[in-house]
Amino acid sequence: MPRLKCSGAVIAHCSLELLASSDPSASASQGARTTVSDLQEEGKNAINSPMSPALVDVHPEDTQLEENEERTMIDPTSKEDPKFKELVKVLLDWINDVLVEERIIVKQLEEDLYDGQVLQKLLEKLAGCKLNVAEVTQSEIGQKQKLQTVLEAVHDLLRPRGWALRWSVDSIHGKNLVAILHLLVSLAMHFRAP
Fold it and tell me: For the whole model, what pTM was predicted?
């Protein structure tokens, strides 16, 4: 007769032991041991494997919403989609081509665009205008003010076309990739990027 033997602290490690007996049917236990081993392995895998295919770092500030607040995000598994990777690559190549004379190289959209510095240079180069903003801003308030000025200039360009603006100072400064992609795709379409 099988007996369940458990040990362990938080997650119990369980194994089945077949009791040796003088019963002649015990000789058939070799086939049962294979089945028990298979079940044991399957059980270990079920306990040790994650519930979802990808482990995601979820931060409390990303999951708690204020009343009427909306938030968009990209499913981490979607970031592996070849079409998404191609979009990001095309946008990075386009930005780097436009800003080559400025000696600016963008490697990661969220990290390189959130403070408004690169967006300012990109817009000035594309639109052929000079924005009245400080060149370098270290404080968060200064970065957001600069970003506000840059985004107002973008809005002035795009508003006559009637495009819905799906970004804000807080979403860009908050490194929201969805908002950054909406902004860049709108700029690329407006300026007919290759």
Answer: 0.63
What are the residues whose beta carbons fall under 8 Å from the beta carbon of 167, sequence distance 6 or more?
151, 176, 179, 180, 182, 183
CA 137 to chain centre: 27
Residue 53 located in a structural domain:
no
Do 30 and 66 fall into the same domain? no
User: Is residue 155 a part of any domain in this protein?
Assistant: yes
Nearest CA among 182, 187, 130 for reference residue 154:
187
pLDDT digits (tens, 9 = 90+) for 137-191: 788 999 999 999 999 999 998 887 777 778 999 999 999 999 999 999 999 999 9
CA–CA dist 177, 82 (Å, integer): 17
Residue 16's nearest CA partner among 4, 32, 29, 34 is 4
